[in-house]
Amino acid sequence: MKAGSPIATSSIWPEAPAAPPSGLARSQHKSPGETVAGRSAVTERAGRARTTKRGQPDREPGLKRANFGRGAGLPTLLLLPQVLILVFFFFIPSLRALTQSVLLSDPFGTTVHFVWFDNFKALFASGEYRQSLVTTAWFTVAQNVITLAIAVVLAFATDRVVRARSVYRTLILLPYAIAPAIAGILWAFLFNPVVGPLAHMLHGLGISWDPNRNPNDALWLVIMAASWKHICYDYIFLVVGLLAVPVSLMEAAAVDGAGPVRRFFLIALPMLGPTIFFLAVMNFIYGFFETFAIIDAVTHGGPAGATNILVYKVFVDGFINLDLGSSAAQSVLLMSFALICTLLQFRYFDHKVNYGV
Amino acid sequence: MKKMAFIAALFGVLALAAPAQAARVEVQWWHAMSGVLGERLNELVEKFNASQDKYTVVAVAKGNYDEVTNGVIAAYRAKRPPEMVQIAERGYMTMLLSGAVVPVQELLDQKGYKVDFSDFIKPVASFWSYKGRMSAMPFNSSTPIFWYNKDHFQKAGFDKPAATWQELEMQLYAIKAKGVSECGTVLPGDFFWSLLENYSAINNQPYGTLANGFDGLGTEFVYNKTKVVSQVARLKKWLDDGVMQIAGQGFSPEQLFTSGRCSTFVNSTASHGNIERNAKINWSATFLPHENDINPPLNSTIGGGAIWVMKGHTPERYDAVAAFLDFVAQAETQVWWHGVTGYVPATNKAYGLARERGYYKDHPTREIAVLQLSRGTPNDNSRGFRFGNFVQTMLAQRSEVEAVFTSQKQPQQAMDDAVKRGNEILRQFEKLNAGKGTEWAPEAK
Predict the structure, then answer these.
(1) Pick from A57, A58, B22, B120: most CB atoms within 10 A?
(2) What are B354-378's pLDDT values in tens digits?
(3) Do B249 and A303 touch (CB under 8 A)?
């Protein structure tokens, strides 16, 4: 087989018709007879792939462009639910947050002062807020890297597991079904320095683990808990992404003598570029917005604010401290940070991602 | 067919029930009691409903105190507040100056109920009253007491915990040195309440200027210049020496005590119910310790919640509210509530009644809180705390104390920073609420 041969897509999922031979072929790459079977089972897809390669994707109706007939009625109707959800759960709350952020008001709303940007100025002058910014940066970056790295390894391993693959996949997907607060309590208990079994193991290894008195331990604990909760999300996308890696390329590399690890890093991973880029963006958004339940359960933002990430601070200042103006200002800032972060990612990394094939 | 019959029956029942209910005025009471306390609260409400046929109180559990507070704020802004709501002690100033509540004493006067507020236990009355008038009905009042493991003390050769911090420290170190237990005490989850605020009251230390805020919104924290600093240093030393442990998240400090791991524990008297049920140890309780150069120690202060009455309802509904509050204040209700929960009875009459009936012979530890609250005459340092945004200042303080525990700051530095942060929060409250609260002193108008 040559590298330029028609691109074939195969499935590593046992349910798919072409799977057994090709799956076997990947794990036993030195049997050329089997790879031919794998290719022939999917030749009907080759045509479409070839056209995309020329850079002229076909314009079949129903594939690239939806066709709803004439008039704007049906499209509007179909869009309506999504638009309504956006209006009621995003635009209206965002507008309210924007207005609230320039007000100083008591919780019951009986006294309201317009204070211009005082809430923002107070935030930037506050050491606590700057500490929260730094913590958030560490937290989201570390969480992102760890989640992706482990998910990539697991996805790579899925490809090599032959027996009980569905059990393996299900086990990895399980954490996604656990509520963040429960997951948090679980981690807090396992690593509790007084009673936690895993903490005792660490102590046994001579590591003085104590997230109650060591800010770094606490930060690592919430990073691990948050990553653990999100690995499955990345994993699903990566496994599916791996399906799209042409078997022929892998086989060609195998014939040229590349081992499984080398093939993975030199062929599969670069081809997963768009998926990984997408996941990096999603991980940032997850880290920014969806981790406050875990923080609440594992550390309450402590000790001494060591795990007080921005979204948790928004929650505490708004919900517990009833400081609505500051909380609104913080959520406005948090939203802009997330926006800037996402835009930067698109600006600097998007063009490095290979969307071909 | 069955379904139809069922629906018909249902309508029938509703039709019969409706006129009977229409005669009763229904009012809502949002509360934050869960578990056993929630069940007891429901019993209390049922008792009231059964005691007369004009009013029905509906108790609605709205989650924890924070959730109840947020719930009532949202409801008030939507112009649909409940008639009554239970709010924790730290929310006092927020509620008082919200402009959204009806003063309880005025309401009861107006409706002709004679509740003797002068008979309320002093720190309870002073905490919940403003300019001499009761602003909310004290409901669940507690105070921290000192719990200990009798066997541990006996094994180490002590009768009971010492009365002063200095002697207690020696005892706890001895307990550890003799190998009786590896953990002398456990850091309470609400240590800021028991070991800093109540500590200041008992040891006659000012917490803030203007009589801890009782004399005005201009109050400033001053606990960075008092014994609180050395108290924080003491806790840090105990932690470093392993005499005190932190339970941490995922585990409660109470479990470390009831399981027999830690020898002592400072916690609210309201945990009687839990400790009686869960402790597998030979436990007892006593007064909180005091400093050896402070004699006699002053009273401790309260925590817990009170029932606030919300504005914006019809006179008939306020009839129901007043009748219920009067019921809550009655000595019999107080004695019962005290007995089944461990909260203190709010009035001296109720306390006398419990004593008369020999209740404390069987439950000696339940009397400690009452005695500790009512000893001496409260002064400016022990009357209680009147700080705006008190939750926010407390969280800032907690964070600074944690910075001592994590060895990032020295105690003095941390308390200076806590006071600085706290005072900024107080100034914001003052700015927002200047000139408010005049409706609370009708005679001053």
Answers:
(1) B120
(2) 999 999 999 999 999 999 999 988 9
(3) no
Interchain pair B73, A108: CB under 8 A: yes
**Domain assignment present for B377:** no
Q: What is the pLDDT of residue A39?
A: 40
| Chain A, nearest residue to B393 by Cα | A321
Check if B428 contacts A (Cβ < 8 Å): yes
Q: What is the pairing mode between strands B183-186 and B84-88?
A: unpaired
Residues in chain B with CB shorter than 8 Å from the CB of A189 are: 250-251
Per the structure, the complete domain to which residue B82 belongs is given by 22-142+302-366
Amino acid A72: pLDDT: 80
Whether residue B424 sits in one domain with residue B339? no
- B169 falls within a domain: yes
Search chain B and give the residue with CA nearest A184. B250
Same domain for B306 and B419, yes or no, is: no
Confidence of residue A25 (pLDDT cuts 50, 70, 90): very low
Give the amino acid at B223.
Answer: Y
Summarize pLDDT for B300-339 with one digit per residue, the tens: 999 999 999 999 999 999 999 999 999 999 999 999 999 8
The ipTM assigned to this model is 0.85
User: Are B290 and B164 contacting, i.e. CB atoms less than 8 angstroms apart?
Assistant: yes
Question: Is residue B421 less than 8 Å (CB to CB) from chain A?
Answer: yes
Chain A residues in contact with B407 by the CB 8 A cut-off are 213
Same domain, B133 and B150: no
Taking only residues 207 to 246 of chain A, the set having a beta carbon closer than 8 angstroms to any beta carbon of chain B reads: 211-215
Q: Does B400 touch chain A (CB under 8 A)?
A: yes
**Most B CBs within 10 Å, among A105, A115, A321, A326, to test the B interface:** A321
Coil/strand/helix, residue B85:
strand
Nearest partner of B216 among B444, B435, B439, B440, judged by Cα: B435
User: Which of A230, A242, A354 has the alpha carbon at shortest distance from A280?
Assistant: A230
Give the pLDDT band (50/70/90) at residue A9. Answer: very low
Q: Angle at CA A52, nearest 5°, toward A46 and A53?
A: 85
Are residues B187 and B311 part of one domain? no
Provide the number of structural domains found in chain A.
Answer: 2
| B78 and B206 housed in the same domain | no
Distances (CA, A) of B335 to A251, B359, B443: 83, 10, 34
Q: Which of A160, A159, A140 is nearest to A148 (CA)?
A: A140
B71-81 residue pLDDT tens? 999 999 999 99
Using DSSP, state whether A42 is helix, strand or coil: coil
> Over the stretch B134-192, which tens digit does the pLDDT of each residue have?
999 999 999 999 999 999 999 999 999 999 999 999 999 999 999 999 899 999 999 99
pLDDT over 90 (residue A83): yes
Q: B34: distance to nearest CA of chain A, Å?
A: 19
**A135: containing domain:** 101-352
CATH of the domain at B351: 3.40.190.10
Q: Indicate whether A137 and A242 sit together in one domain.
A: yes
Residue B371 belongs to some domain of the structure: no
Specify whether A22 is located in the same domain as A125.
no
